[in-house]
Design a protein that fits this description.
heterodimer; A: mainly beta; four-stranded antiparallel β-sheet; 0% helix; B: mainly beta; seven-stranded mixed β-sheet
Chain lengths: 117, 114
């Protein structure tokens, strides 16, 4: 069974600095997608970034980028120039396809990020 | 655009009572999901529906049932609530089963079973 592990329950960063949130996953499949979701105190789930397993190039969305290491099954999120609005719970998630009869998004346990001024 | 609407926003429910959490989407998405979020456990899938008329069990289906009579609605029913069902419940949808289809989430329902 696929699993997603976020080993950092909490992280903190100074405003304008860079922080990296770690995520590892376990799977025997070759085709899948990885996602990072942000959950601010409002409880809303917001998609931050996504990465296809077949793409070697790391995805980037403005200040957010990932370091995808397929062989190591690692998918970390880097937040550059951190802002107070980045404070939230961040979830790493894995999705495989219906051909494996597992069409669902599997989440890690989350990392709470605090941003200090 | 409304996206996904969940109701109620929060609820306190006595153990043994039944309740239906409502979820409606206006994006004509085929796939819909119910997750529960618990501290330290992340989000866990309860039930899902790939298209109207079909449903499937997720990771933690016991004590819950769903139906998908049409594309827009995906209610979650607790037949006889227990305290361990105290949680925040999220409904989500995606356009299809393509791997890159992100999930769109509702704002959640906080349920407390006493």
């Amino acid at each position: 069974a696929q699993t997603v592990t976020q080993s950092q329950p909490e992280m903190s960063v100074q405003e304008a600095e860079t922080v990296t949130l770690s995520c590892t996953y376990d799977t025997s499949e070759s085709d899948y997608y990885l996602f990072w979701y942000k959950q601010p105190p409002s409880r809303q789930m917001i998609l931050v970034i996504r990465q296809e397993a077949y793409k070697q190039q790391n995805a980037t969305e403005n200040r957010f980028s990932v370091n995808f290491q397929k062989a190591a099954k690692s998918f970390s999120l880097k937040i550059s120039d951190s802002q107070l609005g980045d404070a939230a719970m961040y979830f790493c998630a894995y999705r495989s396809g219906p051909i494996y009869n597992t069409d669902k998004l599997i989440f890690g346990t989350g990392t709470r990020l605090q941003v200090f001024p | 655009t409304a996206g996904i609407t969940q109701a109620p926003t929060s609820q306190i429910l006595a153990a043994g009572r039944s309740m239906t959490l409502r979820c409606t989407q206006d994006m004509r998405h085929n796939a819909m999901y119910w997750y529960r979020q618990d501290l330290g456990l992340g989000l866990r899938l309860i039930h899902y529906s790939n298209t109207a008329g079909t449903t499937g069990k997720g990771e933690v289906p016991d004590g819950y049932s769903v139906s998908r009579a049409n594309t827009d609605d995906f209610p979650l029913t607790l037949a006889s609530a227990v305290p361990s069902q105290t949680s925040v419940y999220f409904c989500a949808s995606s356009p299809g089963q393509a791997l890159n289809s992100p999930l769109h989430f509702g704002n959640g329902t906080r349920l407390t079973v006493t």
